[in-house]
Amino acid sequence: MDDIVTLYRRHASAVFRFAWGLSGDRSAAEDLVSETFTRLLTRAPRIETRTALAYLLAVARNAYLSGRRRQRREVPLAEEPCAPGNDPLSRLDDQARLASVLLAVHDLPESERAALLLRVDHDLSYDEIASALGISVAAAKVRVHRARLRLANAMNSNRRNP
Q: Do 29 and 76 form a contact (C-beta atoms < 8 A)?
């Protein structure tokens, strides 16, 4: 039981960021984190601490995909209000850019989005990405590359069409 607590303390925030990146919804991400650690507690074989993060992220992705198959329609939550800052115009511009990037990431195919998030947000190696997604190392590299190209194209077209 202490091992689970240690794993949770060490990796819960990374699993949450990954789940939020996959789902695009904070509430769904929290549910995925709970589901991931519940599955770990009830079904997991003994895992090495060196590979624990990749294993947990793979479990989170599988839980996400299972949920998507069960529930085809989702209702997005309202955005949380932000605290007022010193320069409202600058904050609006930053928020618009962030929303644009998040929308572009969410529009990526799930397989590319997952690979990109594992590489960029979690700094996993291509070997770890391949293991987490159940693909070859070459396929992991291709998915990350394609995701980056799609994001660059989406951001360039957003700049041209404000």
A: no
Distance CA 155, CA 97 (A): 9
Position 36 pLDDT exceeds 70:
yes
- Asked if residues 58 and 109 have their Cβ atoms less than 8 Å apart, the reply is no
What tens digit of pLDDT does each residue of 53-86 get? 888 999 999 999 888 877 765 556 666 655 555 5
The owner of tokens 């572009």 is: 104
**Token match 């190209």: residue?**
149
**Which amino acid is it at 29?**
A
Tokens at 18, concatenated: 């990954």
Distance of alpha carbon 71 from alpha carbon 88, whole angstroms: 38
Q: Please say whether the beta carbons of 143 and 118 come within 8 A.
A: no
Q: Which two tokens stand for residue 54?
A: 């990749």
Task: Report the sign of the C-alpha dihedral through residues 125, 131, 134, 139, in that order.
Answer: positive
Mean pLDDT computed over every residue of the chain = 84
How big is the chain, counted in residues?
A: 162
Cβ pair 110, 22 in contact under 8 A: yes
Determine the pLDDT at residue 43: 79
Cβ contact 125:100 at 8 Å = no
